[in-house]
Structure formats: C-alpha cells, structure tokens
Amino acid sequence: MGKDIINNYLKIKETSHQRLKDAGYFDRIKIQVGSATCENASGAQDVYTEFEKMVKASGRSDILLHMTGCTGHCSSEPIVGVFIPGDIPVKYGHVTPQKAFEIFTSHVQGNGGPVVDMILDKKTDRLYNHEFVFCGQGTKCGDKSDKVAQAFKEKIKQLGMEETIKVASGVCFGVCNDMNNTSATACYVFPERVFYGNITEADLDEIIEQHIKNNTIVKRLVVKLDRVNNHFFEHYGDVEYFNHQLRLTLKNCGVIDPESIEEYIHFGGFEALANSLQNDSPQAIIDKIRISGLRGRGGGGYPTATKWANTRNAKGDRKFIICNADEGDPGAFMDRSMLEGDPFSVIEGMIIGGYSISSERGFIYIRAEYPLAIERLENAIKLARENGFLGENILGSGYSFDIELRLGAGAFVCGEETALIHSIEGMRGMPRPRPPYPSQKGLWGYPTMINNVETLANVPVILLNGPEWFASVGTEGSKGTKVFALAGKINQTGLVEVPMGTTLRDIIFKNGGGIKDGKKFKAVQTGGPSGGCLPESYLDTIVDYDSLNKAGSIMGSGGMIVLSEDDCMVDIAKFFLEFTQNESCGKCTPCREGTKRMLEILEKITAGLGTMEDLDKLERLGSVIRKASLCGLGQTAPNPVLSTLRHFRDEYETHVKDKKCPAGRCKKLLKYEIIAEKCVGCTACARRCPVQCISGSPKQVHVIDQSRCIKCGMCFEACKFDAVKFN
Amino acid sequence: MSDTYTITPEIEAFIEECKGKEFSKSYLIAVLHKIQAKYGFLPNNLMEEVAIRMEIPTSKVYGVATFYHMFTLVPEGKHIVNICLGTACYVKGAEQVLNSLKNSLKIDLNQTTEDGLFTLKATRCIGTCGLAPVVMVDEKVYSNVTPDDVPVIIAKYKNK
After folding, report:
1. Phi, psi of A131 (to 5 degrees)
2. Structural contact between residues A633 and A584, judged by C-beta atoms closer than 8 angstroms
3. Residue range A651-680: mean pLDDT, rounded
C-alpha cells in the first residue's frame, strides 16, 4: 500500500535510541531503584534520595541513577539493582538508606564487588566464576531438564568445583519449539550470558572441558533466540524468586523506567503496533489473536478473539474500546503493578485492539484508589501522543486513535462491564441484563469492546513473538501465562507470572516460598470475593480456567490468598460475604437481600448460635443467588461460602455443634482465662485490658471477668509468662 | 455557611472544559472528584450548582454522589486515616490495628475527632497486599502496621 509505517517507526526508534545513548543509558553504571506504591511505602524514595546524594558527592559522571517500576517481589522491597557493564547484574533486597551507603561504597565505588549478604533472596553466599541456570520443568517436557541439571551438578561435585561453579534450576524458558528438539534442555550461563540449547547429558563433559576449564564458549550448542525471556537474567539477575517465573506481560516491570517511552521502545515497544499497521488487516490481527488462544484475564476467561470479532462485526457508526483497570478484588494488585511499571504495553495493546475493531477512541477506566498508576498512565498517554503513537494518523498509517482516562470513585461492582459502562457515562455504576452484550450495544449505545489490563498487555507479546509460540505455552484450553498476586500467610508475597498449567503447589511453595513462620497450609483462596477456597488435597490442581472451575473455585483476576492453620474458614467466608454484601449495588433482589440473609446466618454461626439446618439453608440460598442474580457480582458472591462448605464442612460443624472455633478467630466463641499456676501477678494484662475487666493485686493471681470481657486478646499478647490461654 | 463553599475559578474552568467535550454529562464523576479534592467533601449547595451548570437533574447528581464510596457528603478531618480491610490485611490482623486506631483516636469508623484533625475510614484493598496490614494516612502508606505502631503514626500528624 506504499505506506511507510515501518520506516516511520524506525526513525522514531533511532532518535529514541540516540536520546538514551546521550543519557549514558548503555555504557554507564546503572543503579536501579524501584518506584511504585508498594516500593514507596517500604521506603524506596528515601533510598533513591540517598543514592542521589552519594552519586553527586562522588563527582562521578559514569553512574546513572535509574528509576523503575515494581518487580513484584513485594516482601523484599525496596529493591535496588546494580548493573556494572560487563558484570553479573546484582539485585539487593530490603535496602535502607544505611545499606544504600554500603552498596555504594563497596560495590559501586570500591572494587569490593557485591555486598554478598545483602543480595536479594540471599541465595548466593559467594560469587562464582560461572553460574549455570538450567531450564525448569515445563508443562510438556516432564523432568528431563532436572535430570540433566542433576547430572551436571554431580559432575561438578566430583571435580570438586562446587566452590566456583554454581548450578541452578530456573523456569521453563519456553524455547523447545525453537530448538525443534523436545528431548533436550536449555541452559543460561553467567557471566558470559550465553544461551546453550539442545543439551543432553552427553554434552556436559564438553561444557566442562571447554567452557569451565578453557574459558571458551561451546559454539556448537549456542542458540540465538529473540524471545522476551532472552534478556531475562540480564535484568533480574539470578534471583530465585524470578527464576521460577516466565514473565511475558510483566517483562518490562522492574526493567524499564515507566516514565520513559525511549526505554519502552528500546525493549521492542510499539514494534508490534508498527508491524500490524503496516502488514495486517484488522481481520488478520483478530485471526492471530485467535491462533494464540488468548482468553480474558479479568476473570471470565472469554476468548479474546471472539470478543474482538463480535465487536468488529457489530453494526454501528462508531465503536469504542475500554480497558478495564478497575481492579477491585481485595488481594489482587497485578493491574496496579503493570500500570505503574509498564503503562506503555497496555496502551500499545489498546491501540492494536482499537485498530482491529476500527475504533477511534478508547477509555481506560481506572480506580481512583491508584493515584500513582493514574499519574504514570497520564504521562504515558502524553508521551505516546508526542511520539506519534496516539492521535491523528498514527505513524503515517492513516489510522487515528486516542485514549482518555476515566476514574472510578470506589465501587467494586464497576468491574462488571455493564456497570463500568454506566460509570463512564457519568451515572451510578449499576449493571443491566445481558444480552445485548457491550460488543453489540455498549458505551452510549455503540458497540464496545472491554478488555482487562493483563489481556491487553499480552497483545504486543503475542504479535511480536508469534501467536503459534504463545499457544505453545500453557495448557490445551488456557494459553500463555497468568500473573498471580500472592498474599496472606506466605513467605514471599508479591506478583508471580507463571505458565498456565503450573500447579497450585508449585506457585505457593516454589514461587511463594511456602507458609509463613513454618505454619501448616490450610487453604488457598483464588479469584477474590467471586472465587473459592481450596484445601490441601487440591494443591496439585493446575492453574487454568477449566481446572480451577472444576475444583469449585475460579481463576478470577489472579488474586491468591494463602491461609494457614491460624485462619478460620467460616470467618474467611464471612469476611468475603461482608464484602460482597456491602458492595452489592442493590438493583436486583437475590443479591441485595440474599447476601444479607447469608451474612446473618454466618454471623449466627460465628457467634455460636447456629444450627445444622443453617448449613443447608446457606447452601440453598447460595444456589438461588447464584442462579437468579443479575450480574457477575451476585452470581459469584456465594462462592466463598459454598466452596468452604464443600471443602471445610467439618469446621462449620465444630462452630455449630461444639460452639468452638478451632483457629481461635471467631471472637464470640473465644474464652480467655488466666492459668492460676502460671500467673505471677505482674499486672501487665490488667494494665493493657481496654475494659478493665481483669482484677487482682500485684503479685497475686489475676482473674478475668467473663461477663465484661470483649475478647480483644490484649491480655494474651501482654502476658510474658504464657499464663493467659484461650480455648 | 453555604457561601464558604463556592465553585472556584479552577473548578469552573474544568466544568466549562467538560461541557465543550462530546458526551459532556459523562464528566459528572470527574467534576465531583474535583470538588471533593478542594473541600474534602461534597457540599449540598455545590451539588446543586453542578446540576445546573451541567444540566443534569439534581436527583441524579445526588444519586451518583451517594452511590460511590469515595464521595462523602459531610466534612471530614484534616487527615484521613484509612485502614485497609482487604483480604490480605484482614488475615494479617487488620482488625486489631483497627481497634488500636479506634482506641487512639477515640472515635469509631467513619467518624471525625473532636479537634477536626482525623477521620477514620476503612478501605477495600489499596493493592499493596505484600505489605499487609497497611494503614494509609492521606496519601502516605504505612506498611506492616502493628497495634503498637498506631499511636506513633498518629502522633506524627498531631504535631504538624
């Protein structure tokens, strides 16, 4: 068609590259400090300021202080990366201004090398001459890479080289399809940064002889790949937490400066858009998305290509695209992290989506609770406009598209698509019956396509790396990866992106590092208030849309709350129902009244007043609300109760029959008592008691007045002699 | 009293800007955000004013203002203390922190202290679950808060 879209793009890329070069992005030492809502709350800004001072004081011009979004490794924030050209990248966790000083003087300024005991995850206790990271177990390959890695480890051990050579296992690199050899394994080597592919046990001796002993690369085995994860280790270093992930949608989070369009372009940003505008018809893009097998990441799992095609084929003078960034599930924060860490990917996905349905206008509906994400999105939209990726005649293609931000105002139900549409229209965010679906009749009556943040962030990845490759990751019915937000009683809270088909056990124990304080795992709650709780016997369930549904929960948007033996399942069910009951918009009776009645029953049970009939009533009521409610909120609201009733019925029965809460969470069932033999009369409990219901003189046994006790547990916490017990 | 709350030139300009745009009535929520950012709540007379200027029935403006949790129709304290009661915070003991907040401030949820300094509110997850339990005072997020931290945090704002 003679359009010079690619050339226009390359020109922008060139100037952008030049700007980075002038700023010393490629040859200066980089000190990278995370900056996101959670990083800042952990004190990242103070760390940044500290480094700023030190860089200034050192008078060195070869150091670049670099801001980036959040890596998702929440429990170790603030995170600082030091990238010295030619050296292994090093990431530090829990950095304080004092630690920043140590890092700067020893690692950056001095020649002391990395401050080993501050390295993220403290996995490395020394620095190695070479590090070999083998690919981990994929969904199709079984344990063959583990076997090769194990054999290699053995050989290193036999040769007595354990002190200098490290052998580690990582994630499935997703490279088998490129190598056309699924019986072999792949391995990444530091500090040379080479990718060896097609390794079998027979190749190991050669690697040892050549690579380790002679310091020459085994050229025969090197594979050159231009995949997203090819640069993975260069950005994340060898950190256990990241090694077990396959980061596609989070590929730029914690890598690029979210306020720099140059850096986004440097990592292949807008290339998918330029290619699409130059070579593909809107229909061709939809076909590619269909081949990729992408399904909606917001919770429903609806095939993205079908949604796009429906909107494309719908009759209407104009069409709209909406990015649903109203991430309301408590416990889910992947969208926030993505928008704070890499807003451009979502924008690029949106432009491509807009082009494929011939829409000229898009909206991002975002929660007002995310001020930093809003700020970064606004900035990203502005930069995209200035560089010709948004606005009139994008890259000279003749296609025009622009994006507007719309803020929510704190209503969970607005995550439901028809409610969201009403909210953008400036009305109360209440849902309406479907059909007609938004793809037929949406915003202001025009066909409207609504996609979730993570779904849109997948689009450039698919188009850049090929839909067939994307489809090779994941399971039969669920392709690609999913980002999960790990929270609750887990060691490593944060975001993890893993291939679909990974087991819950792997996510919780490998990625998440297991249960906090060595407690026993009790349940995992997936899918937020619309999801369910799964017990230990379901830990080997793989995560994909269909398997989780079958188990009685849902994928949802990816929130994963891990519960330990200290948590009461009835209490958790009550918590979620309180939430949905509170957030019910009130439009339809089953949801408005039904959730209230269910909550009343749960309150009865947790107060020790429940009967066995109540349990049946809960089930009956739950199934009515499920079937009769107007929108997704009501239809899924009973899930936490129904799933806990299914998997933890015995706990409900203990509450009802024995009037006891085994986990000690249901206050009304608790009874605090002071053990006379242990009480030394220190008066600590009496002083802390907010209702002064503990009596006793100093050095005498204290007594709790049960009639006045509010069961706050202060006395239990205050006692240093374990003299306070609760049943 | 009501004339203490006026449409400032800045808000007026914003309303005019919105009115010039396509689907102008859809900017109602954005306008209400502006007013709340200025006064900390939505004064009655201003909701009426917005209704007239944007040509939206007052009942609808009021309907929107009362539907969304972030809007409030009564004046609030100088500092908004928000405790997150999302799932992650809840399982990590947000309830005890809430009790400690109630004790320290001597108010219940959604109340304002007598000196007008603090309003205590609960929020549903601010997306920093890795740091649970969290308390947000105005825009500042405090992480891994224990009941004992509460008086220290509150004191910081009392002396300001």
Report:
1. -125, 130
2. yes
3. 91
Q: What is the pLDDT of residue A171?
A: 66
SS3 of B122, please? strand
Ligand-binding annotation for B18, yes or no, is no
- Inform me whether the pLDDT recorded for B160 exceeds 80: no
Most confident of the ranges B37-41, B54-58, B143-147: B54-58
Which residue did the predictor score with more confidence, A198 or A2?
A198
CATH 3.40.30.10 in chain A is located at 5-122, 130-238
Domain spanning A473-567, CATH class: alpha beta
Single-letter residue type at A457: A
CATH of segment(s) A5-122: 3.40.30.10
CA distances from residue A156 to A150, A152, A171, A310, A572 in whole angstroms, order as listed: 10, 6, 21, 57, 49
* CATH superfamily of domain region A264-469: NADH-ubiquinone oxidoreductase 51kDa subunit (3.40.50.11540)
A vs B: CB pairs below 8 A: 148
Lowest-confidence segment of A82-86, A91-95, A304-308, A445-449 by average pLDDT? A82-86
CATH number of A570-658: 1.20.1440.230
Tell me whether B30 touches chain A (CB under 8 Å): yes
pLDDT in tens, B18-30: 999 999 999 999 9
Q: Are A349 and A459 in contact (CB under 8 A)?
A: yes
Residue A650 pLDDT more than 90? yes
3-state secondary structure of B107: coil
pLDDT of residue A223: 77
Distance from CA of B147 to the nearest CA of A (A): 10
Q: Which CATH number fits domain B79-158: 3.40.30.10, 3.40.50.1000, 3.40.50.720, 3.30.70.2690?
A: 3.40.30.10
Average predicted confidence (pLDDT) for chain A: 90
CB contact under 8 A, A488 and B92: yes
Read off the tokens for A688.
């802390």
Domain limits, chain B: 2-67, 79-158
Evaluate the omega torsion of the peptide bond into residue A436 and state whether it is cis, within 30 degrees of 0: yes
Alpha carbon distance A253, A203 (integer Å):
35
The whole-number average pLDDT for the span A157-178 is 77
Query: Complex ipTM, two decimals?
Result: 0.86
What does the pLDDT look like over A534-547, one tens digit per residue?
999 999 999 999 99
Q: How confident is the model at residue A688 (pLDDT cuts 50, 70, 90)?
A: confident
Q: Count other Cβ atoms within 10 Å, centred on residue A646.
A: 15
Its CATH class, for the domain covering A130-238, is alpha beta
**Structure confidence at residue A179 (pLDDT):** 53
Backbone angles phi, psi at A722, to 5 degrees: 55, 35
Residue B71 confidence (pLDDT) above 50: yes
Contacts of A480 (CB under 8 A, 6+ apart): A248, A292, A293, A294, A458, A462, A470, A473, A474, A499, A500
B160: exposed, middle or buried (Cβ count in 10 Å: 0-12, 13-18, 19+): exposed
Residue B42 C-alpha, separation from nearest chain A C-alpha, in angstroms: 13
Best of B59, B87, B105 to disrupt the A interface (most A CBs within 10 Å) is B87
pLDDT value of position B1: 47
Residues 363-422 of A with CB under 8 A from B: 368-371, 406-412
